[in-house]
Amino acid sequence: MVDTVVVPLLKIAVLLNAVLVAVTFLVLMERKVIAWAQSRLGPMRVGPYGILQALADPIKLILKEDITPVKADKFLFTLAPIMSLVPALVVFSVVPFGPDSLYYISDINVGLLFIISVTSIGVYGIILGGWASNSKYPLLASLRASAQLISYEIAVTMTLVSVILTAGTLSLIGIVEAQQESGLWFGFIQPVAFVLVFIGGMAETNRLPFDMPEAETELTGGFHTEYSGMRFSLFFLAEYANIIVISAVVVIIFFGGWLRPFPNVAALSFLDIIPAWTWFIGKIFFFLYIFIWIRATLPRYRYDQLMALGWKVLIPIAIGNLVLTGVAKVVL
Amino acid sequence: MVEAFMFYLLATLILGLAVMVITARSAVHSVVFLVVNFLLVAVLYVMLSAEFVAVIQVLVYAGGIVVLYLFVVMLVNLKREPEQYTDPRRLGVLGTVLGGAVLAQLVGIAVYSSIRGSTVVDGAGLGSDTPFAVGNTEQLGWVLYTSYLIPFELASMLLLVAMIGAIVLAKQNL
What we know:
By secondary structure, chain A is an all-alpha fold. Chain A is built from 13 helices and no strands. Helices cover 68% and strands 0% of the residues of chain A. The longest helix of chain B is centred in the middle third of the chain and has 26 residues, at 51-76.
C-alpha cells in the first residue's frame, strides 16, 4: 500500500511543484537573458535584481479579471487551457531524473513513444482555444497550429526511430544506460538527429522562430488573444512546461541524461561526487538557455517557409538519416 | 474484481462518448468527444497489457488523425450553427438496414465467442519461441515481420495506393 500508492503520490506532488516553480523562474530567466542580449537590465524593481518578479507575475495573473467573450463556445473555451496544460505535466511521469527508482515516477517500456504521443495531445488546447474564442485571429492561429503539428511531428518521430535503432530500446532509462555502455552520448553518434529533434521541438513548443500560432505582430497574440487572467496563465504554464519537457527529452536521448561527461573514463570518476540528478538538471538548464538565446537571435519564419522547411527539408533528411542508421546497424 | 469493475466503467464511458460523438450539435464538439473516446480505448489496451498498441493509438488516432479532422471541420463549417436540415437524397431505409446488419454481426460474434469459450492468442503459436521474452514491442515486431509478413506488406501497399490516389485526386493538373 505504501509502496504502490503513498510513495508515488508523494513523488508526483514534489515533481509537480518543482516543475511549476521552475516554470515561474524560467519566465524570469527568459526576460533577463533577452534583456542582456539586447543591452537592457530586464526586471529590476521587485526584489534584488528582480528575482521576486517570478512571484509577482503569477500573483498578477491570478488577480486579473477572467473574461469569457459573449460569443465564445463556453464549454471548449474553459476546456482548452486545461487540455493544453495537463499533457505537458503528464509527460514528466516518465522522465527519469536519476538512475534509481527514487528519481522517476514510472519506467514503462514504451517511454519515448509515450512522450511523443502525450505531447501531441497538447496541441488540442491551442486548436480548440483558438476555435472556441469565435474570433478571427485566434481561428487563424489554430489552423496554423494544426498544420504545424502535422508537419513537424512526422519529421521528429521519424528521427526518433533512428535513435531507437541506435539504442535498441524505447525505455528512457534503457536509452541512458545504452549511452553508458557505448561510452558516447548519442548526440555524437547521431548529430543530424539531434539537430532535427531540436528544430522539431522548437516548432512543437511554438517557440521563436516557429511561433506562428502566437505571432504577436500579425495575429495579436494568436490563439490566446481572447484569454485573460488565470486561463491565459494556464496556456503560459503549458508552453514553458513543454520547453522543459523538450529540453529534458533532448538531454536524455542525446546527452546522456543523468550521466556525467565521459561516463566510462575512470580518470574523471571524481566527478561522481556530484549527484546524478544535478547533472541532469544542469544539462536541462543549458538547453533552456539555448532556447532563449535562439529566441533573442532569430526572426520569425514566414508561414509558407515554415511548412516548406518541415515537408521538403526535415522529413527527407529524417528518412535519409533513418536509412543510414539502419545500414550502419547492419554493417557494424 | 477491480479489473472487471474498471472494464465495465470504461466500456460504459466509451459507448456513452460514442453516442455523444454522433448526437453533439456542433461538429467540433463531436471531434472533442472522439478524442476522449480514443484516449479511453487506449486505456483499455493498457489494461490488456498491450502498451505499444495503446501508445500508437494515442499517437496516430488521437494525436494525428483527429487533428486533421479538426482542421477540416474548422475550415468547412466556421461559424454556422447546425440548422435543421434533411438531405433530400438521404437513404434512410438503406442506412437502417446496414446499421442493423452490423449490429447483428456484432451480436453474432459476441454470442459465438461466449459459446466457444475464450482462446488465448499467442502470436501465431510463436509465443515463447520469439527471441524476445520481455516487452511486447519486440514481440509484436517479431511476429509482424515473420509470420504475418505478407499481410503486413499488403496492408502497407494498400495505404501507399490510397495515399497516391488522394494526391492524384487533389492535384488534377499534376
